[in-house]
Amino acid sequence: MNDRENDLDQVWTLMEKIGFCMLATRESRDIRSRPMAAHAVRAENTVYFLTDAGSHKDEDIEADPNVCLAFADAGDQKYVSVSGHAEVSNDRAKIRQLWSTPAKAWWKSADDPSIRVLKITPKDAQYWNSPGTVVSYVKMLAAAVSDTRPAIGDSGKVSM
């Protein structure tokens, strides 16, 4: 496997494992983020979300479809940042496909007319995958004492 394929594997594996991210959109000159439950589908090079037709993020995306997804598992020191293009649709078949128990916190059923699909097509991503908090701290302490740089995991940037 080459470096690009390895980086892509890292990105998709981490997105699927972490599952939740902060979706950042632009509102005029400001950047706004909110937590979202992600459905990462590598075979389609797409990250899907269920969203509400009345939400402000949909207006932000209509004005500027460039978004950022920030996935973080702080306990294990694993992070992914994805830049991409967003679009909102009323694809009822995809809504039913993505429907899950957590969605019931926001809507009664997949047939709720206010549900929309938010589709993110990634352009590029960066990831940081360390061996965990304790190991990272030990390596940082050892590096500080020995005046070297710590080797605390993998990182990479990849076009998607």
Descriptive notes:
With 160 residues, the chain is α+β, with helices and mostly antiparallel strands. It has one domain (3-159): Pnp Oxidase, Chain A, CATH 2.30.110.10. Helices cover 28% and strands 42% of the residues. It is built from 4 helices and 8 strands. Strands 1, 2, 3, 4, 5, 6, 7 and 8 form an 8-stranded antiparallel sheet that branches. The longest helix has 16 residues, at 3-18. It is globular, with a radius of gyration of 18 Å.
Structural class: alpha+beta
Q: What is the CATH class designation?
A: Mainly Beta
* Average residue-wise pLDDT: 89
The domain count comes to: 1
Listing every helix as H and every strand as E from the N terminus to the C terminus, the arrangement reads: HEEEEHEEHEHE
Terminal CA distance reads 16 Å
Tell me, what's the shape?
globular
Q: What are the segments in which pLDDT stays under 50 over at least 5 consecutive residues?
A: 133-143
Number of strands: 8
Radius of gyration: 18 Å
